[in-house]
Write a structure and sequence with these properties.
It contains 15 helices and 5 strands. By secondary structure, the chain is of the alpha/beta class. The chain has a 5-stranded mixed sheet with strand order 1-2-3-4-5. The radius of gyration is 19 Å and the shape is globular. One of its GO terms (molecular function) is phosphatidylinositol bisphosphate binding.
């Protein structure tokens, strides 16, 4: 999966569509630049995060577990300098199961250390990340689903397969996910939306075999968050070929949360992600992906020094 928070200025005009937009984004109650407020709140949550606060708000995680996981990481020399928010994220995604959290840490460290083309040199300001964002959108959405799930959208910005680099795209995707996890280590869940519009088989050939195997292992076993659903939008018969390519890498547990939507099947999507949580590209009430990317970029720039490397 740079701009300004002020890229969207909600004006007070007598326009039904504008009123609908204000209802969708006015999370601050101010009626002005509420999207900016939502992203500022995420960044502030990361800056002000404390272990005491996380333990107070999450009964399934105990201080003794955090201490035990930290000691294990140090003694095993796996992530010996791990930050407390990430410790909590591992325990949270494992629902307080210490041994399961250790298993996730092992995969997290193993894949990241052995896949430098995705996880090394990934400052938000790096030329590679900026180039990847010129090819694709990697947007965090400001509004959560009714269940409290955070939504992340990935889509092609430039459909030309010759400019698509899978490793760079994955780098930008996981950089974005890491920033949100750092801001919200105990989020109830995450929903990923992949827009298949303009995707061609040429994009798939760019993946190769070795890298997707690592990436999907990380997605399934090493990502410190609760993935609730993965939606594929604007699917065509090509999706069947894509799934045949991916199936060897994907466990049945992950496949069970896949949802597929054709361009004519958006009503089913709205049952799971309401329109006030979606950009206008998909019939939602939020601004288009281009503007939401501006907000996401400002958030990522603020989070850059807090994102795990």
């Amino acid at each position: 999966m740079g701009g300004s928070r002020d890229a969207v200025d909600v004006q007070e005009v007598d326009d039904p569509e504008q009123d609908q937009f204000e209802d969708a984004v006015d999370t601050s109650g101010s009626g002005t630049d509420a999207i900016g407020c939502a992203f500022r709140d995420m960044a502030e949550a990361a800056r002000s995060w404390t272990l005491d606060g996380a333990l107070r708000d999450n009964a399934e995680i105990e201080r003794s577990q955090v201490n035990a996981l930290r000691s294990w990481c140090q003694e095993s020399e796996i992530l010996p300098d791990i930050a407390e928010p990430l410790l909590v994220a591992f325990l949270h995604c494992s629902r307080g199961d210490l041994e399961q959290a250790k298993a996730v840490v092992r995969v997290y460290e193993s894949v990241r250390s052995k896949t430098p083309e995705v996880f090394a040199d990934r400052s938000f300001h790096s030329e590679e990340v900026q180039r990847a964002k010129g090819v694709g959108y990697f947007c965090v959405l400001p509004n959560k689903t009714p269940e409290g799930y955070r939504v992340i959208v990935q889509a092609l910005r430039d459909p030309d397969p010759t400019v698509f680099v899978y490793s760079s795209s994955s780098k930008a995707q996981f950089l974005t996910m890491d920033a949100v996890v750092r801001a919200e280590p105990t989020a109830p869940g995450y929903v990923c939306v992949f827009d298949m519009n303009a995707v061609q088989m040429s994009h798939m050939w760019a993946w190769g075999i070795r890298l997707p195997r690592k990436v999907f292992r990380y997605l399934q076993e090493g990502l410190p968050l609760r993935m609730q659903r993965i939606h594929f939008l604007n699917t065509t018969p090509l999706m069947d070929r894509v799934m045949r390519m991916l199936r060897p890498f994907i466990r049945k547990e992950l496949q069970s949360i896949f949802q597929f939507h054709t361009a004519d099947d958006m009503e089913n999507l709205y049952k799971m992600i309401p329109q006030d949580c979606l950009p206008e590209n998909y019939g939602g009430f939020l601004p288009p992906l281009e503007k939401l990317q501006d907000y996401t970029d400002k958030f990522l720039a603020e989070m850059n020094n807090m994102i795990p490397t």
